[in-house]
Structures are given as structure tokens and as C-alpha cells.
Known about the structure:
By secondary structure, the protein is an alpha+beta fold. Helices cover 23% and strands 8% of the residues.
Amino acid sequence: MYLGRVVEYGPTPVVINEPRHPYTRALLRAIPEPDPDLTRRKREVGLRSLDIPSLLQVPPGCSFHPRCPLYEEGLCDVERPQLLKLNGDRLAACHVVAREWAHAATRGVPVTRVPRGSGLEGGFPPQTEGFW
Ligand code: SF4
């Protein structure tokens, strides 16, 4: 979740080992390692900004866009990405990931939009009772 909205969802081992959303990737890279050699081998987080926006002034478009290393001007700062589902178990809300998944769809991998009222689309808390 980022600023109260689900940005990526899926089975924990899959999300941890193969994160798709730039925020998830940044979070995982920021985990401190007890081994200094591991720490040195980790790539930097690469955020555009370390400032966390106020929940009272959530940025337009994708709320992660002021910090995202994959930010695309004119798209990410204008249009809020839809939460999409890939292959039945992975969900992500990101224009770049959506483009990758659209490419996967051309190879027959099913990609669907998460419907409103599913408990994930509208932010937190979930809107559907009993979802969790
Ligand atoms: S929609 Fe754009 S700004 Fe948001 S996470 Fe994806 S690439 Fe980054």
C-alpha cells in the first residue's frame, strides 16, 4: 500500500521474490542487511525524492509519481493507474507494469481490471465486507 491505496498484491513469496511495482521494489531494496557484503551488493533505491507526500495533499495521477524512478511525465502525473490483475493472482497499479502486462497479454496471459467494490480498487479500508 502507498498513501492508503493498494499498489501491489499477490502471494507473499511471489511479491517478495519478484516485485513488480516500483514502490514494492524500493521497499525491498531498503531492507537493511546484517551482512555488509550483502549491503554493498544491493542496488540503491533510486527514488526521485525521499519526501513522503501528505495524506492531506495526495499527488494527482499516480500518488507515487513524485518519488518514482520510472515516472513518465504527462502520464503518471495525470492519470491514476488502474489496479490490474495478471494471470489470476498478481495485482498492480502502475502504468509501466500495465504496459509490460499488456505485452504479456499478447502472448495469451490473461490481464483483467480489478472491478470497483472488490475491496482493493478503492483504497483502504476494503469496501467489501468479508474480503479479508
Ligand atoms: S504509474 Fe508511473 S509513477 Fe506510478 S509507479 Fe508506475 S511508473 Fe511510477
